[in-house]
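Handout, page 2. Input:
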Amino acid sequence: MRLLEIFKAHNKKSKLLENIDFAPGTVERYETCYKHVFNFLKIKYKKNDIPINDVTPMFIDDFELYLKTTRKCAHNTATKYIKNFKKIIRIALANGWLKKDPFANIKFHLEDVDMAYLDAKELDTLMANTSSLPLNRDLKIFSLSDNV
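Output:
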């Protein structure tokens, strides 16, 4: 079995289960992760796909480096993509396509993020400078309200 072949099959099933078992955002994240892996393979290995057995701890380290440097992903974003990728590896292990878990000695951690909140003056300025269409303004303000 080949890596992207397994990934495509997973994403196809995820899409069929969108709004049933998977949130739309989750389906989109797996699609984005697939694209990152595809582009990584093109750059690093000059290939469109690789055998699943070629995924090693070094492959994972190199993929993380690619995400953080070439793709300019922050630590937490890169970690989330690696976790999405790990699910594909678990599928390969469960089906016997991969004999050894390349994630066996790899631990993940998300860094604490200090969220910046708008103060009342900043919120007023945003409301004043946002589109004059009330719906657009309200949607913009509402999308920020979780952080206020």
